[in-house]
Write a structure and sequence with these properties.
The complex is a heterodimer of chains A (465) and B (93).
Chain A lengths: L3 H9 L5 H19 L2 E4 L1 H9 L10 E5 L26 H8 L3 E6 L35 H9 L4 E7 L5 H7 L2 E4 L19 E6 L2 H11 L28 E5 L9 H16 L3 E5 L2 H22 L18 H12 L2 H14 L5 H21 L5 E5 L8 H5 L3 H6 L5 H5 L4 E9 L2 E9 L4 H8 L4
Parallel strand pairs in A: 2-3, 2-4, 7-8, 7-9
Antiparallel strand pairs in A: 1-3, 4-6, 5-6, 5-10, 9-11, 10-11
Chain B lengths: L4 H11 L5 H18 L33 H4 L6 E2 L2 E2 L6
Antiparallel strand pairs in B: 1-2
The chains are: A alpha/beta (465), B mainly alpha (93).
């Protein structure tokens, strides 16, 4: 397959029949989707129209799949939820608009856990399909950006994926599917047009077959946006082209991420990768992050569920999405719509989030979690005084089978996020890069850098390819 | 934390979700397991600082200038419940 950045250059010089490439890409994606369920919706018409428009720019002629929770004008966008079935946004999300302006062509909306509520892409909305791992269809793609990761692995045409992470939804599926998943600093990419899960945690990011391609997509999407007051106005570095010199780079191996609960074969693959970094001049140190190890999961889930329960309050079957027959008073009607169209995990998080914000419980749970988040951020900030990058396995195991997942309790499901929630709670940029497989399944190393130091992740990551 | 059916019912009313008896039983069990595990936050060494966002957010208001917005017709395009150019909702009383 042609190297993506060379292809873009050649498209700009008129060396490819983009319409023909687009038609073949669409047919190929649909064929893959039949077996693997990576798409909720295809954007056939828009995709071919964009190919016909002679795309130009940094992503010219590249098929861009968009996680279903990111709005695409005129294309059904549901965040994988039945309650948004039929909703066709009247606008593009800022990230999508920027990609389109650089010649990216939107191929469709990828499958995910409903609203991002899961780590295995099995908590899908009513009537949706579960995406299957590209290496073994009996196993999970990871989640919640499962379709994005699977498609990135299987695509044999120029393709990049827009993903989204709240608690690990980019790096987890990237690790399970053997691709690069890049989640930037909170606020690096505008959230305008993103169907929220949890506002203070949501980040739009990218997936690609290699680190520089993933970085290129972030670069195109990043930068200030007057539509999102949480979006940073710091200038966007050209980090996709930074050199790979890691001589003297200080890499901190997170001690707690290699112990109990982590598959020894996964841990060994990741340790080997850190030895490669050392051989190329990096300085390896062991770092302990005890607060994040102990309190990361409850802090993340309490904040995320509280925010999710307020975000989900707007779904009442009036202005968009699923509707029911209009009868009864407000509460009766809203309750009817929400009961009929939210899936099981959406209801669970809605219930837990509502509880943790109720009078009498709010201080003990929600406010406590916000104060604990400060302590977790401080722990990371302190670590970054001594190291430039933190390293750990992305996930404690390889992609589990659907049978294994079905036996987990909700709490055991949440615990699987133990290694990804930390950087997400702290809003730190992180990337998962494939390392040597274990049990014949992909394994990812997760690298975390300080806020807005995406370039350090690229510099480190390219040394593992 | 005492989790019982009455608590689950009160939360469900606030969340605008109707639960079957079977769902109520399941939520009692889930709540107990999850809240017990999460109760460790009560003894955690917290900061005095509340981090609503991971990084401080500077909320700058846009300049007060008119710009194009959705037309009424466009705003109503995604609803099935409309009348005379307005959204039609359930009765208030």
């Amino acid at each position: 397959m042609i190297e993506l950045r060379r292809y873009v250059k050649e498209v700009s010089q008129g060396e490819h029949d983009v319409v023909d490439i687009a038609r073949k890409a669409l047919a190929s994606a649909k064929s893959i989707d039949k077996e693997h369920a990576y798409f909720n919706t295809f954007a056939d018409e828009r995709f071919i129209e964009e190919a016909n428009a002679k795309p130009k720019g940094r992503l010219a002629g590249v098929a861009i799949s968009v996680k279903d929770c990111v709005c695409v004008k005129g294309v059904e966008s549901t965040a994988g939820s039945d309650i948004l079935r039929g909703y066709k946004p009247l606008f593009d999300a800022t990230a999508v608009e920027r990609v389109w302006k650089q010649g990216g062509m939107i191929i469709g909306k990828t499958s995910q856990d409903e609203f991002g509520f899961g780590g295995f892409s099995v908590n899908i909305g009513k009537g949706y399909r579960v995406p299957k791992n590209p290496f073994d269809t009996n196993r999970s793609c990871g989640g919640s950006s499962g379709g994005a990761a699977g498609m990135t692995r299987k695509a044999e045409f120029p393709h990049l994926a827009i993903g989204e992470s709240t608690g690990g939804s980019i790096t987890c599926p990237a690790a399970f599917c053997g691709v690069v998943g890049f989640c930037p600093t909170y606020g690096r990419v505008s959230r305008w047009g993103l169907i929220d899960y949890a506002n203070s945690l949501d980040k739009i990011g990218s997936m690609a077959k290699n680190v520089r391609d993933a970085a290129l997509l972030i670069e195109v999407m990043a930068g200030s946006d007057p539509q999102d007051s949480t979006c940073s106005d710091l200038p966007v570095e050209q980090f996709s082209t930074v050199d790979g010199d890691i001589k003297g780079l200080r890499v901190g191996i997170i001690k707690e991420a290699f112990g109990e609960g982590v598959d020894p074969a996964v841990a060994e693959s990741v340790k080997n990768a850190t030895r490669e970094l050392e051989a190329k001049g990096a300085i390896i140190k062991e770092i302990s992050l005890p607060l994040n190890a102990k309190y990361g999961i409850p802090t993340y889930y309490l904040i995320a569920m509280c925010e999710a329960s307020t975000n989900l309050a707007k779904y009442g079957g009036m202005r968009y999405g699923a509707h029911e027959k209009l009868e009864g008073d407000f509460n009766t009607y809203f309750t009817k719509v929400r009961t009929a169209h939210f899936g099981d995990e959406a209801k669970r998080r809605l219930m837990l989030g509502t509880f943790a914000r109720m009078a009498g419980y709010r201080d003990a749970y929600y406010l406590r979690a916000l104060k604990l988040r400060s302590a977790l951020i401080d722990e990371y900030k302190s670590a970054f005084k001594g190291v430039d990058v933190l390293a750990s396995p992305t996930m404690p195991m390889v992609a589990p089978t659907f049978d294994e997942i079905s036996k987990l309790t909700p709490l055991q499901n949440y615990m699987a996020d133990i290694l990804t929630v930390g950087p997400n709670v702290a809003g730190l940029p992180h990337i998962s890069v494939p390392v040597s497989p274990a049990h014949r399944m992909p394994v990812g190393i997760q690298l975390v850098a300080d806020h807005f130091k995406e370039s350090t992740l690229v510099r480190t990551g390219v040394n593992l390819e | 934390m005492n989790v019982d059916k009455a608590l689950i019912e009160a939360v469900a009313v606030n969340a605008r979700i109707a639960l079957s008896e079977k769902e109520k039983e399941r939520f009692v069990k889930d709540f107990k397991e999850i809240l017990e595990a999460f109760s460790i936050v009560s003894s955690a060494p917290v900061s005095d600082r509340i981090s609503v966002h991971p990084e401080p957010v500077v909320d700058v208001m846009r300049s007060d200038e008119p710009h194009t917005c959705l037309t009424q017709e466009a705003a109503l395009r995604n609803t099935q419940h409309k009348k005379d150019g307005y959204f039609k909702g359930p009765r208030a009383l």
